[in-house]
Amino acid sequence: MTSIKTTGFTGDTLEIIAFRLHDQEFCVKTTTIREIRGWAPSTPIPHSPPDVIGVMNLRGTVIPIIDLAHKLGMKSTEANERSAIVVAEVHNMVVGLVVDRVSDILTIRSEQIQPVPEVTTSFDKVYAEGIIAHENGMICFLNLARMFKERDMDDMAA
Question: What is the DSSP letter of 2?
Fold first, then answer.
């Protein structure tokens, strides 16, 4: 039996928020999420990294808006009225992640998280904490702390 590393998981269960990018399901821990907002246009920033769509004002604080699909190596998301912005806190910085739609908030058992197979499709498996087999299909469990390294967060804030 393969043992998987589940650092950062408290107890036997974990709350996740699931969302869709194109035809794939992803999730993150709810503890990293501040809020979920409907789609709103952002202000582009010249010479920003390719996955940064722009910035928006979140109650007086300017936050970067990230094209999560692009960050994961997928075709960029074409935002529409069904899109959502998942506002997350990573390395003490708040970012908005554009997703096609939020699917569900789930409570899972830590043993449901399986290792990412060696053969993966359109995303860097370093970003994935694992795969969750769910009754409606497979969900890729993302690790935002690994996806957004502290150095990258400093670059976005500059």
Answer: -
Pairing of strands 137-142, 24-29: parallel
Could you tell me the CA-to-CA distances from 3 to 6, 61, 112 in Å, in that order?
A: 9, 42, 12
| Alpha carbon distance 25, 133 (integer Å) | 11
Give strand pairing partners of 63.
56
Round to whole Å and give the CA distance between 85 and 126. Answer: 23
Encoding tokens for residue 114?
């399986």
Structure tokens at 49: 């990294």
**pLDDT values of the chain reduced to their tens digit, one per residue, 158 residues:** 333 344 444 468 999 999 999 999 999 999 999 999 999 989 999 999 999 999 999 999 999 999 999 999 899 988 888 899 999 999 999 999 999 999 999 999 988 999 887 765 554 568 888 999 888 789 999 999 999 887 555 555 54
